[in-house]
Design goal:
Elements (H helix, E strand, L loop, with lengths): L1 H34 L12 H14 L77 H10 L3 H14 L5
Length: 170
């Protein structure tokens, strides 16, 4: 029952609010009509076709020429013409294709001429002096390495050196 009373109270408030707004609207309209009476514009007695004919006659007659403008001192103002508008359009220009033409020339760089190695190391400006690598280790060097790896202390040193000199990622 309380819900119906609350709902009825809200509806009553809404009705009162709308009624007050309508009363204010009527009062405002009445005041505006008293302050400025409505201006009635008489409708033209001519039809659209007659008005169109009048405008066409005026256009054919042209604008009446006016006396040239004068300065306050009585002299005529100089007649100036606006400079012609500059446009970047070139409508008469023929459209050109933006594609490149096919070429028969290779775009790869030419490889340098290969030369045989003479076995002598000659320093060149682009190649610094190189020392030849031995193709096979000498048998005496092999004996020295195997002798070193027989003792545990030298073997530990070799392992540490290999860890230091080994590449990070293999």
């Amino acid at each position: 029952m309380e819900k119906l009373q609350t709902l009825g109270l809200i509806l009553f408030g809404l009705v009162v609010f709308v009624w007050r707004m309508v009363q204010k609207m009527r009062d405002t309209t009445r005041r505006e009509q008293q302050e400025r009476p409505p201006a009635r514009v008489p409708l033209p007695s001519t039809s659209f076709e007659e008005l169109l004919k009048q405008m066409q006659q005026q256009n054919q007659q042209g604008n009446p020429t006016t006396a040239p403008a004068r300065t306050p001192g009585g002299r005529e103002l100089p007649h100036e013409e606006a400079p012609k508008a500059r446009t970047l359009e070139q409508p008469a220009r023929k459209a050109q294709s933006q594609e490149r033409r096919a070429t028969n020339v290779s775009l790869e760089r030419a490889a340098p001429v290969a030369r045989r190695n003479t076995g002598l190391d000659h320093p060149a400006p682009d190649n610094p002096l190189r020392r030849p690598r031995p193709t096979a280790p000498a048998p005496a060097a092999r004996r020295v390495i195997t002798d070193r790896l027989r003792t545990p202390a030298d073997l530990r040193d070799a392992f540490i050196l290999s860890e230091i000199l080994k590449r990070k990622f293999e």
